[in-house]
Specification:
The protein is mainly beta. Helices cover 6% and strands 64% of the residues.
Length: 142
């Protein structure tokens, strides 16, 4: 399913350098894909494994970026927030919504970014539960 979503998103490319593929480390740890639809909006997808709880999670978020609050001498340092959903596969199927917030450093070359993100979420399947995830990541843009 993730491969199908990636194929659909990459077919709508407005230009070079708007798609990024990389790694996230934290809870969970895995692969991340980001697609900028404009300079302030993006889709973010990830497939990741939780080593502590032994489950595989797939999430997708729609993100809004704000470039005006933090200034750096080179590159860009936007913070972002978003809305998304997740599905986790382990002993039980778990699904719900998430609200990520993060900060991202875009290198001047526009080919690499690093980010720190925290996401609060609520599962609604099989029952209601709250959680918080945090991750550090890097992506290479093409």
């Amino acid at each position: 399913m993730t491969a199908l979503i990636l194929a659909i998103l990459t077919s709508f490319s407005p230009g070079l350098g708007d798609k990024g593929l990389g790694l996230i480390a934290g809870n969970p740890t895995g692969i991340t894909f980001k697609y900028f639809t404009s300079t302030t909006r993006a889709f973010d997808l990830a497939t990741a494994w939780s080593f502590s709880d032994e489950w595989l999670m797939v999430h997708g978020d729609y993100l809004w970026h704000n470039y005006g609050d933090f200034k750096v001498s080179s590159g860009q340092l936007p913070w972002y927030y978003g809305l998304g959903a997740f599905v986790a596969f382990g002993d039980d199927l778990v699904a719900g919504g998430r609200v990520p917030i993060g900060i991202e450093y875009l290198f001047p070359s526009d080919e690499i970014d690093i980010f720190l993100e925290v996401a609060a979420g609520i599962s609604v399947i099989p029952d209601t539960d709250f959680y918080v995830d945090a991750a550090l990541g890097i992506r290479f843009f093409f």
